[in-house]
# Entry
Amino acid sequence: MPEKKREARSVFYDLFDAPYAMEMEMRSKVYGAVLDEIARRKMKQKRIAEALNIHQPTVSDLLRGKIDKFSLGRLVTFAGKLGLHVTVTLGTRPAKKQAAKAVRAAA
# Structure
């Protein structure tokens, strides 16, 4: 019998409730893209501060992985200042999952 494909899920969903996990996953993706672009350009801290219009201690927080200090909106702004385009795709949960929850609730 063929194995069912398991949907990949972020570890954030194991740690937090769904709304916060979704935000953390988005922040993580944008943060990673910002860091990748900084690395690709081989930017030094002074240049990062100028490009993002932030102070050096904030650059240090960014480079040291202190993602909790940056809102999703601020990270999206950083991405834009680096010439990156951020898109968000919204959708609903697959019907199968919703039906399974309804069955469990009824049992």
